[in-house]
Design goal:
single chain, mainly alpha, 84% helix
Amino acid sequence: MDAGDALVLGTVLTSLCAFQLLFHFVSYWFSRRVSPGFNSLSSEKKIEWNSRVVSTCHSLVVGALSLSVSLFDEAAIADPLWGDSLLAKVNVAIASGYLVSDLLIIVLHWDVIGDKYFLIHHCASLYAFFLVLKDGPLQYIANFRLLAELSSPCVNQRWFLEALQYSKFSTANVLNGLLMTLAFFVVRILPIPSFYSFMLSVVGTEAYARLGLLTQCSWALSCVVLDVMNVIWMVKISKGCLKVIALMRREKASSSLRNGKLD
């Protein structure tokens, strides 16, 4: 094992331990002090709360690093298929450690937070990241895909507001809902056409042939699985957003009618 491999493995293990520590200890301590409503939650709600705190921390770290790689890492940008970047590999290693940690949490608390879609999502992502870390290709592609994590804070914030019993029509809930829908679309749905257009454009090139059949198929299959899930989630988020907007309009019309009668 060379120094690079040791660094990657060490990052995965450190990430795994850090996110476990965050879930079991830090989130409890921090949430009690920041949010008074946390103490009144049921034990089941606290488990999911802590899981989402971990998810938010992961998404902010990994999202910021992937944005840096996608915009400024010359080695990765110059050769999206075979560019070798230490920052890109470290970021994938951090994400891999988080996914293993979250899988452990999901399995241990399946009755509370078990979700087959997250299980599929995590396994597909881990398999793809394993190929990147093992053989070194597609580092830029992996980091480009990790930009999707930038939508997670808004998704988690929606759950936090609901757990704290904020009204669906509260300013915080409405603004977060709109931002969540926009962020999810921008980082998970909007890139889909250009991403698969790029994938098709490199088919037949020497760099693509060097990937080998296993990596080629894994790249395509894992991305398709993840994007199908993203589309499904986007539809659900959009329906929820439109439903809230419709209810707000109905409430506003009803309020105007009552005011009219009072006048």
